[in-house]
Amino acid sequence: MLGRALKAQLTLLAMDPRDSLAARIRREMGTRQATRHIRHVRSLILATPEMAAQLCAWLDAEMPPNVRRLHRVALASVYEPVLSSEPEQELFDYFEDAYLIGTVYDVTIHRVCKALPPPLRSTEAFSRRIPQWLESARLAFPAVTKRIGQIVFA
Description:
The chain is mainly α.
């Protein structure tokens, strides 16, 4: 239920021509390089509900305690904005949560993969795309992604 509400909210924000995500990325990277990275960062944000659902599904799987803790931290952060959303929110407001969820998803796939049940059908293709999305996010917003990386890899 909450995942559907988040997906609907993100889709609506992504369609808003006044949203500042693309302008922020162009400002950080320059117009020439920005196009692909805008698409990747937007995809990362829009995939957040499905990745969060996958992290929830994996909570019962056997995994190292530090990875389970990351799942809980990431899930708590992504659902809190939905519960307290403000009317003037933009797609960029979800970037930090999307990057955290995507990073935890990627770490889980690459470090714990053998012990996990298969991914949900809605997230099967993500494991190939997420590294590109995360790299674009790191290039577009290095300070933010560095701070989140310090949380994940502490």
